[in-house]
């Protein structure tokens, strides 16, 4: 009895040779060097173009964050004067540009009073939260939940400022504005709000005079900076 899965005795089976696939020797034949070179060149070109695309879009919408913190004490003092009292600003509102790497770039805030920064908005935001907590404590209403509520409302207000500024720039047919520019201009509002809170602590009714004035000044400063 023969095994149905084996070979019959006395019969030699031809050797089995695996057939190479259609592309089995594509990278081992004479043209393998040319194929590898072509793939490497295509891959390098693809990676370079992708990196350039991402870098251009990052610069287009976010710019360089370090640019917005290149400030000094003199800039902060002069900028606060422009923010809080824009009608007394003597000079132009145009930002100073300079050629860098074959294209025009704006000078950092330390060299241009009209350049937006993020130092003042973040400091003003923190000051506003601290003053709000102090006001709540002065009124006997201080709680961690109340501070969190003020913090959340302030962030939402900042985000709404960005949407409003973006809409105004788009409606006026302006070009693409970096996102951090809009964050800076929207954050200047907290400098005026902090001053309004201080005035309210000194005299409650002064708040109703200072607040409209600050709103007008913030509007002038933000729009002139665009």
From TrEMBL:
Q: What InterPro entries does UniProt report for this protein, alphabetically?
A: Yif1_fam (IPR005578)
Q: Where are the transmembrane segments?
A: 118-139, 151-170, 182-198
Do the record's keywords include ATP-binding? no
Subcellular location(s) of the protein: Endoplasmic reticulum membrane; Golgi apparatus membrane
Q: Name one Pfam family in it.
A: YIF1
Topology with respect to the bilayer: Multi-pass membrane protein
Give the compositionally biased regions (Polar residues). 1-22
The segment annotated Disordered runs over 1-24
Q: Does the keyword Lipoprotein apply?
A: no
Give a GO biological-process term: protein transport
Q: GO CC: one term?
A: COPII-coated ER to Golgi transport vesicle
Keywords tagged on the record = Endoplasmic reticulum, Golgi apparatus, Membrane, Protein transport, Transmembrane, Transmembrane helix, Transport
Signal peptide range: none
Q: Which family does it belong to?
A: Belongs to the YIF1 family.
Q: This protein is called what?
A: Uncharacterized protein
